[in-house]
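We were asked to recover a plausible sequence for a given structure. The inputs and outputs are reproduced exactly as logged, with field labels preserved.

PROBLEM: sequence recovery
POSITIONS: 401
GIVEN STRUCTURE:
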């Protein structure tokens, strides 16, 4: 794959000639507060009678959830992409465009965009459009996703799973500087001095989502894109080696000049790139109420997917184990805040995103969870981080009982 969108060695591609065009913040992240987001896949919910809500109503409800998140001070709102009956959202960018016209300050992005089964140029164009509608609040999180329904749906060969993502990511990275792109690969015709429209006003922020592969972590650093770690099971601390690897690789690639084609020592140092975590959870007034409202819906979602993948059924004991010591952030505002603060400090995070819906939890309960997350959890986490003297991007040793 070759690209002359920016001067760089193809072995160490870059997505921008200027780091500010795609970093998670437009300044050095070390000077910014830790950000807190909410993510949803648009799980099909149920009403109070236990009846499934129509996909169309779920989509309308997601818009209202995003509006509330904006109002209560949440920093970012991400929407995932799926192509199956238990999730209503197959076109998150369309939904985000609608949300852009109803919100004022919240960052709007994907969680994730399945780049392997999409067209990188169209992805860029759609999110550049969202960026315009939102006055510069768009971001895109690129990944392969954990589901494969989109491949046969769009006529793609799963045998090319790795090649599809690698080549399309390379092309997407070449688009981010927003200049003329000359690029060639194996899966599509080449581009020669091609401009892509619309242009953004201040650059498009692009992240790479990773589920735990060291190769994917290094790839994110090589492209100078921020890292989103999807931690959906087990203790967050086991991902510390991946966060450390990203920081080390990022420093090496930046020092070698991969971010702009220069060499080490030329010009200002490249800014540190942020690391975020995406994990599931649910907030209610008390720990008991949070477990009561979320456990059964989590089990429906977990066991449906588990049966498709040949896993054994999870039990309520498994749910409580994940809440106590795994990746579930479920409980009262204080309980959830304490656990998020521990994760942020342990991994040296710049951002934490809570996937606030898991399974068919009713819309009203989700709205309560969003309200508590914005009004109580986020301020409390900020207090805890300040008390600990936490600096974004710098891991701390956290004692655990």
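RECOVERED SEQUENCE:
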């Amino acid at each position: 794959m070759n690209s002359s969108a920016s001067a760089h060695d193809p072995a160490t591609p870059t997505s921008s000639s200027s780091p500010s065009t795609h970093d998670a913040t437009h300044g050095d992240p070390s000077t910014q507060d830790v950000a807190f987001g909410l993510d949803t896949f648009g799980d099909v919910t149920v009403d109070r009678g236990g009846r499934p809500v129509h996909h169309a109503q779920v989509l309308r409800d997601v818009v209202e959830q995003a509006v509330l998140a904006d109002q209560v001070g949440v920093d970012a709102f991400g929407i995932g992409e799926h192509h199956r009956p238990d999730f209503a959202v197959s076109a998150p960018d369309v939904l985000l465009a609608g949300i852009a016209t109803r919100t004022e300050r919240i960052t709007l992005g994907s969680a994730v965009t399945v780049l392997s089964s999409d067209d990188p140029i169209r992805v860029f164009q759609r999110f550049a459009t969202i960026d315009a509608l939102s006055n510069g609040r768009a971001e895109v999180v690129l990944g392969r996703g954990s589901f494969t329904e989109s491949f046969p749906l769009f006529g793609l060969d799963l045998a090319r799973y790795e090649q599809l993502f690698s080549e399309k990511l390379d092309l997407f990275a070449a688009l981010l500087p927003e200049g003329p792109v000359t690029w060639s690969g194996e899966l599509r015709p080449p581009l020669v001095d091609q401009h892509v429209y619309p242009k953004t006003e201040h650059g498009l922020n692009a992240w790479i989502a990773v589920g735990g592969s060291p190769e994917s972590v290094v790839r994110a650093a090589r492209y100078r894109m921020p890292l989103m770690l999807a931690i959906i099971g087990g203790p967050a601390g086991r991902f510390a080696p991946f966060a450390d690897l990203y920081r080390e690789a990022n420093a090496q690639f930046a020092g070698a000049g991969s971010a702009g084609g220069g060499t080490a020592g030329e010009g200002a140092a490249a800014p540190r790139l942020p690391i975020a975590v995406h994990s599931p959870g649910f907030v209610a007034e008390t720990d008991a109420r949070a477990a009561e409202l979320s456990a059964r819906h989590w089990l429906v979602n977990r066991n449906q997917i588990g049966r498709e993948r040949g896993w054994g059924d999870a039990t309520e004991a498994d749910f409580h184990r994940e809440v106590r010591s795994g990746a579930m952030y479920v409980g009262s505002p204080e309980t959830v805040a304490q656990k998020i603060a521990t994760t942020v400090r342990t991994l040296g995070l710049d951002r934490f995103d809570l996937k606030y819906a898991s399974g068919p939890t009713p819309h009203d309960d989700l709205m309560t969870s969003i309200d508590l997350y914005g009004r109580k959890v986020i301020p409390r986490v900020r207090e805890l981080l300040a008390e600990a003297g936490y600096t974004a991007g710098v891991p701390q040793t956290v004692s655990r009982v």
